[in-house]
What does this fold into?
Amino acid sequence: MTGSRSFLPWPLLRQFTAGDVLGRGAAVRSRRTDDIVPRTTGADRVAHSVCPYCAVGCAQKVFVKDEKVVQIEGNPESPVNRGRLCPKGSASKNLVTSDLRQTKVRYRAPYATEWQDLELHTAMEMVADRVLKSRKDSWQDIDEHGRKVRRTMGIASLGGATLDNEENYLIKKLFTAMGAIQIENQARI
It folds into this structure.
């Protein structure tokens, strides 16, 4: 009930006294409802983006206030999703704003019981060393029938839906160039 307030405490009484028998008008509104404003109202700017989860490419409007994401919604101008987002897309704000988001490289050594923080450079070197060793140890130039195969069976890739199309494309190219043939994505399984 914008403007005047009713002294009747129950919406049902307000419905009948105000002539709003179906309960679709002002009789069922509360003060709290009247005070609610959309999260997007105070945004400084709107950035246009694409949902990062799957290959559909749903368009998103990212509302930013004080350089922080305050809301993410589907873009109604997109012919792909026409303003709708799946549950994962709707929750994509948590990708960048969640307090649970890991922002450091965490490592647990074999047989260790505790995680430790590593510098990104150190972690990347460890991964590179292990990939190169695995590729070297499992490299096959020729198969059991004498055919030239130039592959490794010691490396496989299982991608996830939190990667976007470009990342999946680059990962596929990288693993193929390394000679891996077991390259899969969770979206296909």
